[in-house]
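ok so i was messing around last nite and threw this chain in just to see what happens. nothing serious, just curious
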Amino acid sequence: MKPPPGSALPPEQAIIATYDDMAQVRRAIDALQYSGIEAGRIKLGGEGALAAARAAAAARNTSAADRPLLWRVLWRGFWWSVWGGVAGALLGLLFSYFGFGFLPGVDQPLIQIVCWAMFGHIGGALWGCYAALTMGDAWGLTFQPSFGGTILIAVRSSDPRDIERAERVFREKQAISVTRGD
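result:
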């Protein structure tokens, strides 16, 4: 897509990577998003992606297809809750050490530590579940099994840094081929 004449926006560029396995594609999309590339800029294509989309559309019962996604959300929520609880306990310990309290008249450091640990635990679980999901259309399809055929991941952006980051991610995630286009 070219910008209109007189526009200050640079033209969009694309970079396309080829994979042969949906699990590799999911890891690549995760890495793209963690590197700062917006989910809406990532698209899937190719024979393998079309076969997976047809299988997902034809499925009467989506529970089998959704099970890996559910486990991902629960697992990430669990680990973030653990780390959030530890961080909250350390924060409570720090507050009690310096004499800051949130309950008037309570000088029990243990209560302070436990309350902050629970706060961190709940906040961490919420963040972990949220962080396990994505807003991109392409990502949900990667939980389908591989049906053979190539799977293409395309990133389009007018920011050359996005294209460079995407190329680096594709090479790190062992794409079969990486090509640039307009």
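not much to say yet. The longest strand covers residues 13-19.
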